[in-house]
């Protein structure tokens, strides 16, 4: 990215050599993302991240067809739900598809809700809280058989599992750079060739007319590089992450309590994301284990993503209050995993002690 | 920005110290922008650039009031016009305010179009092609006297002239980082305290509920730093740029032809932006003067910004085809200005020669 901060200031689409060099840099970056997604470069529209990509898919696809019925899994991100619900005043009917208690949205649950006027189904590739993998391919095949489009928010998947569009078969697919070591402020939407997505913002025509606004050139260059890395490293990373995550869970159960529950333990999940139900106030544990960076649910309304996802698999408010989400990364070492488990155990002991 | 690439990976709004450090970094950046704009930090919403800021102002303000009448100067950017025109199907009436032949939108031209149901007037601070400064303060005072809001796209102004919100008095104001040496992918919208702007994208609540999506943290840190620099350097830069621009025009007229016209020469203009009407095919000159980076109008439809602005001041298609826009920067030296004039003159001679 460095040269694009310090030397190449121009924007693509202008009439001189420096601008063309930047356009070429951006196109190489687009090819990097295409390598990861397994698509052609021209099937990718750059955005400023996953939120914009999800908005663009839902609103941009909806703008090309008459108002109708849309199915959204209850586990989707706010950027999918919010965009979908905004369509209601335009005559769209938005229906939620529940997930099972194991955190998976059954293909059957989608199929039995398909109607004559269903235009779009939104199903994420992997859930950011539960880690559960969703049957995107099966849903896409079933939907396509009835002429229904499928949008897949795949922002949690890349860099963690080897996956591509040939496997997922969705019609549109969201990518967010900072979820796999790319820079913040850079993302992309895959749009299957031949499909029309209308712009959701207004301005000078850029990105094949789909997305106006000056390109975040250095950020997108970084997105391309991160995508190439993710494409090449995901298989190896996936195996390693799964092993370390298992080790972490084993040690936590060993040191704290065998009864610590792993959310959706039986389901196929991301190798690096695990939500533990500790059975005690998770935010106190979080505070006591200050060096450990984990997520907990926000207790105040409106419900945050963690609360929503755990409620979707039938967890009670007190169970949700006892939940921490732990994520491992490519550089996480075995020592760090062990130290994390130790920190958790110490925090736990401290809390138990203080209650005596 | 560097530490926010290489060390601080978290996002603000999470429950640990690293996240709070990032939130503090972002708030310092917001104060940097506030210093430049002359507002309170809490009156600023971060965006990914000027296009999003303009969209947010027009659509976000419109969403808070009943559909009505909106005035847009004909010189506004596509991101203002596009957003405004999208409101027509919601019952809004969008009316264009013409500019005079000197590239200035007269306050009177706005006032005589105000109606009982006029809700918003959009007037840019400075035109990116013509360089003309617009009477934002006078228009704002006149509009406020009738309870009408004013949005000002000020993206071309900062870093070039000392200006702040106390001078411009608009209710909302757009900022784009890369227009004054900040990074691409970072901008802001000033929203006067007490005013409600509805979000234009959907997702997790961030930026005081007005703008969802993961913040481009390093980009916004850079925006803050660039804004502080712009606040401190604009007065000095302005004087220097005006002198160099005058020198450039003088030399061009001296070497090429005294008849080279400066667009809107009599109007108050930005000190660094000048459009020259060469009276010959500008794109050929541009190609011949390869090292010189200038803008020319695109001849093909749809009309680009340069074509639109020059047509607005009554220039013919052949005059527009002979126009080049030259912009100077803080680091432009006298030698570079002289070299640029030489390059132009050489290109000109070459063209004249080839026609003999």
Automatic annotation (TrEMBL), chains A, B:
It comes from Roseimaritima ulvae. Pfam families: Aminotran_5 (PF00266). It catalyses: (sulfur carrier)-H + L-cysteine = (sulfur carrier)-SH + L-alanine. It comes from the Bacteria. Its cofactor is pyridoxal 5'-phosphate. Its EC number is 2.8.1.7. Keywords: Iron, Iron-sulfur, Metal-binding, Pyridoxal phosphate, Transferase. Belongs to the class-V pyridoxal-phosphate-dependent aminotransferase family. NifS/IscS subfamily. SUPFAM superfamilies: PLP-dependent transferases. This is Cysteine desulfurase. InterPro entries: Aminotrans_V_dom (IPR000192), Cysteine_dSase (IPR016454), PyrdxlP-dep_Trfase (IPR015424), PyrdxlP-dep_Trfase_major (IPR015421), PyrdxlP-dep_Trfase_small (IPR015422). Residues 14-339 form the Aminotransferase class V domain. It is an enzyme of class 2 (transferase). One of its GO terms (molecular function) is iron-sulfur cluster binding.
